[in-house]
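Reopening closed ticket. The problem is back. First fold of the pair:
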Amino acid sequence: MLLQRLREYSERLNLPPALYAEVPIRYVIDLRADGSFEAISDTADPGSPAARRGVRRLAPQVKRSSGIKPLLLADNAEYTFGLPRSGGNEGRVRQAHEAYVELLDECLRAFGSAEVQAVLWFIQAPGWDESTFPEDFDRGATITFRVDGTFVMDLPGVRAFWAAVNAPVGAPVMQCLICGEQRPVMERLQGAIKGIPGGQTSGTSIISANAGAFESYGLSASLTAPTCSDCGERFTKALNHLLSDDYSRIRLGDSVYVFWTRQPDERNFFQLLDEASPDEVKR
């Protein structure tokens, strides 16, 4: 099965922490240990395709639907500060911000971090307003925090909390099609595939049954192909890695192909089509 081969390939990768992915972070807010504001950095570089929306960093990520789901210490201004975008639903934004603060408070109680406490103090400071931010502040861009030079989302305790708080609760125990073990399986996979031509900008689901015609044996959503959270994350990150590298992908029309070898191999097979040598072709 293709997904099993992708999971095997993931064992060769230096994968990011659980439920972390590289995303553009536009604003970095620097705080002092007492939660007081020090500076805000806009990392966007319009002249660089890679940093057009901000410098890319590993940050908490899960796939979001239409419901309210805060991303710990790496979210937009609606969640982080309760600042609605133009035409935004103020009631929903207020709920999103409350959920963000509640998640931060839960992280503080679980981890006891002085850095998380500083972020909470800053966000909840009386009289706080947006005047300290740049005039062209983009409320839809991702914001994170740095306390005394430390990115709070990089702390091991924060990473462990994020993985724990998103662990499946009450999930059905079934045989995972990837590893073959009896484990809690995901109703909806937490990661998405990026870089699929014609796919959604937020990412595309690789396993999904969103209509009755695709369901069988009373199973819906991702349960039609039962997958445990570990396998789901591994094959998702493996495929995203392959899609992100010209060495392992080729685009033809509106399709993209990925390829890899069972054992590491530094040769670029498709380069042989342009720069073939008899010895290389024979090998």
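Second fold of the pair, where the issue appears:
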Amino acid sequence: LNYNLKLQLRREDVNSAEGATLSAEGKFDVYIDAEANVQSEERTPIFVGGPEQEDSGFWSTEASKVFTTGTLVTLGWNNRGFNSDATGQLLDPWYNSGLTLGLRQPLLRGFGTEVQTSTLRSTQKQLEAASYQVNSEAANLAAEVKVAYWNLVFALQDIEVQQLSLTLAKKLLEETEAKIAAGRLAEVEIYQPQSEVTRREEQLISSERAIGAAEDELKLLLNSDKWQTTFQPTDQPTTEPINPDLVTIQDNALKSRPDIKAADLLIEAAKFEEKRTKDDIRPDLSLVGGVGLAGTADTYGDSIDNSISNPDKLWQIGIAFSMPLENRAAKGNYRQAKASYNRAKTSAELLRQQIRRTVRTTVRDVHLAIKAIDATRKTSLATQKRLEAEQAKFDSGRSTTFDVLAAQEAYARALSTQNLTNITYANILAELDRIQGLVTFSSSR
């Protein structure tokens, strides 16, 4: 959970979703715009008293904000200055300073809080979904770690079985050699145990290879840098039977699994996007208006004073309308958003169907594994007794090396199957946790 790379990628998805939410919130930030410029122009007079040189300046700043209702409010401070050598002007130089308050209110496209906040609410749902997907990945990882751990346990158990099998074959080879030397067996009897010893040595090598593969799988999940370190498991799989209730497990899975919650949140996110893109198809009809106060004087300070004590006043109100004639971009975006919404709904339903099937399979596997544990335990005991009987018969000359080797092989196979059945049961219990979205590492219940 701390070091797995796939889980780290899922956590980065959360960081990305947080960034998308922050970006969507930026739509309602306060924006500041400022501008300043000066200009000077020299020209040849074209009439008596006309200017030969004119100097002008302009500086302004404006704050704007969109509210969740879609209302755009602007507050601007505008300043102008002008100086000319022309004759006959009432003020030269002159300055103008004033405040303007502007408003634009959508009446069709972009009208209302629901539309204006749709992108933000969609990204918020996606952020929640990303967090649940991290939890889902953690539950999957927990199951993968347990399966990899128990597979390593089985590999170590299996090599013990193969070592026992090889030891038994070597013991029989020694006994056969002794009986041949004593004249109690024909010399051809030596080939059977010799070939079996070689075969079982090959099986032992394969078991050693399986241990390495199981260790590597576990180290990969841990993102371990200790590739040369040998792992020694300390826990053994439980064989204690449990009796899971199908309805309870299924209810837990459908209600608690984080990937189900994430899928439902993605449906909501897609629905918000569908509403927004549908709204984009409508024409842009907005109410626009503004008011302002300004003052003009031959000094900049007096112009500011006049804007308060004796202001020039202005106001405006009007309607603005725009609409693409074909509007294909908005219609195309809406179709894509609608398809994404339908896809999200279908994906969530498919996930629920898969969960129902997996729950039924896993609960059934639990019951069958419990039966298999009891059966393989009895089989191991029976094959052990058979081997002891065949060995006794061989010692008394009433059995062949072939019969003893066959009994040894059956006993080793039964032991391996018993170990594998125990491991399979442990892995099924891991799957039982995974399908309910649980992150547990207990080796027993």
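Update: turned out to be a display glitch only; the data is intact. The chain has a mean pLDDT of 93. The two ends are 21 Å apart (CA to CA). Please close again.
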